[in-house]
Task: structure prediction
Amino acid sequence: MAQTAKTKTTTKAGAKVKTGAKAKTAATDPKQLKLTPAQIEAFGKEMDALRERVLDDLGKQDVDYIRKVMDAQRGLEIGGRGLLFLSFIPPAWIAGTIALSLSKILDNMEIGHNVMHGQYDWTHEPSLSSERFEWDNTCPAEHWRYSHNYRHHTLTNVLGEDRDIGYGILRMSEDQPWHPYYLGNALYAFLLMTFFEYGVALHDLEVEKIVAGETTFADNREKLDRIWKKVRKQALKDYLLFPALSGPMFPLVFAGNFTANIARNVWAFMIIFCGHFPEGTEEFTREQIENETRGQWYHRQILGSANLTGGKLFHILTGNLSHQIEHHLFPDLPAHRYADIAVEVREACARYGIPYNAGPLHKQFGSVVKKIIRLSLP
Amino acid sequence: MGVFSVASAPLKLGKRVATSRLVESLVTPNPIERYVELFDPGWARDDVRAEIVAVVHQTSRSVTLTLRPNANWRGFSAGQHVGVGVRVDGVLHTRMYSPASSALRDDGLIELTVSEHSGGTVSRHLIQNARRGMVVPLTQAEGEFVLPSPRPGSVLLISGGSGITPVMSMLRTLCDENDQRPITFLHYARTPADQLYAEVLDELAENHGNLRVLTAFTRAPGGNVNGRFSMRHLKAAGVGPGCETFACGPGSLVEAVESVWSKHAIKTPLHVERFTPPPPVKITAKPRGKLLFARSGLAVKNSGESILTQAEAAGLRPTSGCRMGICHTCIVRVDAGSVRHLHTGEVKDVAGETVQICVNAPVGDVAIEL
Ligand SMILES: Cc1cc2nc3c(=O)[nH]c(=O)nc-3n(C[C@H](O)[C@H](O)[C@H](O)COP(=O)(O)OP(=O)(O)OC[C@H]3O[C@@H](n4cnc5c(N)ncnc54)[C@H](O)[C@@H]3O)c2cc1C
Ligand code: FES
Result:
């Protein structure tokens, strides 16, 4: 990136690239992060080759994998809802709520997010088609594919373009001018976390533009209608029909479903915010991405993303967004491949001296929280 | 249309429940099939699916499958084809197969005979791996290669190799109708070992005095007539006035039949079906312009080939089925530009319309939703 000097970063030198050992630590200091254009293109070529290799290898094992996850999700959903019908036994309520939370997490993250990215479109299976898939949350899949697949993935961490930066309500970067409104940054973040699915649903409406008078609610009529339809369907199922079917257990089933939705919201918020906002990730400006080459694009994706370390089950529950860097490099490769891909990406980053931001959840989320609080003040 | 057993009362009730508003609201946003498939993978609300109930190898290079379609199947007319979805190494491929069974079969089952195409993905997979109990997606039957009603005065059925299937269905249907009008069945196989339905044909000829079966072998001695199709063979088979002819087989056979018809100015109607596309119309003009894939943001120089081929060469993987303009699996919306139909040569401005990308090539600049 020729314009690294302009890049905003809060990297503490040496925090990341472990593989690179001492000799490479200097490279994580942005001031010295001067890859030549030729190096960046060479790096891009390596990433392209890696992608080709994985594409050529796609096959039955990938379908078997996602089917297994879908089977597990369905089992958890049926089991969870079944147990909640026995809510008069307290352990059944707890187990049912946990199972349903896990079902929603799997549905949204490892299945929904990844299928809707088109990671399985090559199978030509209608049930794995990005066009057809609809997930168990209030955001219409169609909207998400635009705001997420296009805006967020192509314009990653570009201020004013990537609306995942603060979802239009938070201050997530020093470059966003401060306003007394942001004194509530932490409170808004907490509310966004709790009701994340609604935040995501309204995301595409660009409410802040409506507030600013740039667009009106009437302009967004169609989008609003679709959101409202989806919200209604989700609410009907979780807050009326299933509770009603359980008869006297109505309040308990209601509470179980509500808890599962919140649990999924909190989890998704944590994972997603850890993907781009921990200490060390960078934001970019519009000028920086003009005439960007393929190599520069790859480079930006890595600088703007951060990974979470953990075990296999943890990765699955994050929808493999724990491999956020690999996901941003190759958003349409099946996510369960990222763990293997990461080994090569990390090695290449070490060779080129590109910082590779990875850490455990508590550390990364801790730094996100710190950032949110710090940015509530000028 | 074929007769098939009407779903029994409990099945109907099951379907009513499974498709009710309440159940739909409970399983939202998932399709109900996602849960029903736990008990019955062949069931679907609207889609046709079929269970393979028998697998027989008539020859070493073919497999004959008997399928039980679910209640959404609307039956077929003898001579039509269905799209069958087959999963090979994780990818769902759709290929057309013409049922060879009688359209009047009262158990509602359909029989497909798949012959090997050397290097073919689906045919080889089915020959090796088709098993009883497998469930495959089907499309409804389609196709204009059908017997007219009322039935013609006499019928001549000509087929070669794997092309025997649609005319076999016509023959079996006519026999089931107990039609007494003359039928001649002229079939070409490479060798006796390659001949499909030999026993079935013998048996039908024995039971139906109005049926005459002629076989020819193109790579072995024997048979009722010798070598490849010619006027001589047609004379042996005979086409009287009021006869309608149905021919299906490899391109070379179909073309031989067509050329005999035109050379000898034969007046009785000829219907043909091909399993492989006819040779493309010769285009002399050099391809011009750019093909823009609007969704993926890629642009390529128009090579003059089908949009499907060009998209695949660019690394995209659009859905396709027959790849010859029959199944409509490959339709995509064109944002701007004109296309040429590769079979007819016709050029049309199709901005805002959908086209079958397997049989259309860009003419000048074209932007397409891929
Ligand atoms: C209306 C209709 C009815 C039909 N009915 C029947 C039927 O009843 N029975 C039947 O057996 N078939 C029937 N077919 C043909 C059938 O649909 C398939 O085309 C056939 O089974 C071959 O499919 P495949 O997947 O095995 O071959 P494909 O993989 O599609 O390949 C087809 C041919 O192309 C060649 N090929 C593949 N890839 C390449 C490549 N990269 N480069 C060069 N050549 C290549 C293969 O060698 C093969 O010969 C019908 C077709 C139509 C259109
Ligand atoms: S692939 Fe069948 S019509 Fe194009």
